[in-house]
Amino acid sequence: MRFDHDLAFMLRYENIAWYDEEKALVRILDRRIYPIRTEFVNCHSHGEVAEAIAKMVTQSYGPYTAAAMGMALAARECAGQSRDRQMAHLQTAASCLASARPTTAKQMQRITQRALDAASHALDAGESHLDRRLFELAVEALEEKYRNIERQGKELVSFFPAIGRVMTQCFADTVIGMMLRACRAEGKEIEFFCPETRPFYQGSRLTASVICDMGFPVTVICDNMPAFTLEHKSIDLFTSASDVITLDGHIINKVGTFQIALAASHFGIPYYCTGNPDCDHPDLSTIVIEERKPEEVLESMGQRLVMDGVQAYYPAFDITPPELCRAIVTTRGSFAPKQVADFFQSTAD
After folding, report:
1. pTM here?
2. Do 301 and 121 contact (CB within 8 A), yes or no?
3. pLDDT tens-place string over residues 276-308
């Protein structure tokens, strides 16, 4: 049984990003418009996969799966060439895919490097159908990820009350599904409040959809409502995922996380972050905050909102300091933010 067997529609493997060998393309669920419409973007080259990642067709962990599937497509593009030409093409594809979004480039490099290593071994062994091998590797990575995050979801839910209310931020992908699976297994009755997360509305469209799809009550609020909601709706806990966690405990996540963590701290509400620390980011000196096109702030779902001449600013992420977080929930247990580097000394999976 696959680890996605009872999760919401958009967390099933085929509905994230999927290499179609017969059609020679990568199909990606367009999370920019789901659930208003259920549409897939068909990418016919690894370059189109990278472009889809950059344009946020898929978000949260979706880009990593798309990159892995994009490497399978890249192998298809160079099939039949010499070993050196195939590896050169795959290295070019790996660089293209990993750099699609700057803030997560180092994590993406690990995905593409895994594909490069597998390709090198397969070519040395004289294997044919290299694209199929890299596709299988991508599916293996999904199974491994879901298995690890299932443990993480159970650990996070251990901090939840038996009956209570939890506020989320942005879209936490598989963590949300595994968190809900754990709530169901433990009989915990949790109601969720999701800020909408402008400008792509990941909170209202994606987080809330997964929660609703899996049968839990969920309420969407606008991005300027978290503090009032924390105070007046008896919220027990605030949680978010992370795009990067530095070794000294700083949390880089969807912009807006910092202000909710501040408000939660003011009201004495604990904040638990999910994610693993990144050894490539010892501190904030290595972090590059992606600034996206300001035009994305000036419109909503394709409709321009402001007068011509009005300007905008769009940092995609913000930084939450360790003192605002109660614990970082990893795939190897929970750590105080300032001790999160101990993750690398804990028992390996």
Report:
1. 0.89
2. no
3. 999 999 999 999 999 999 999 999 988 999 999
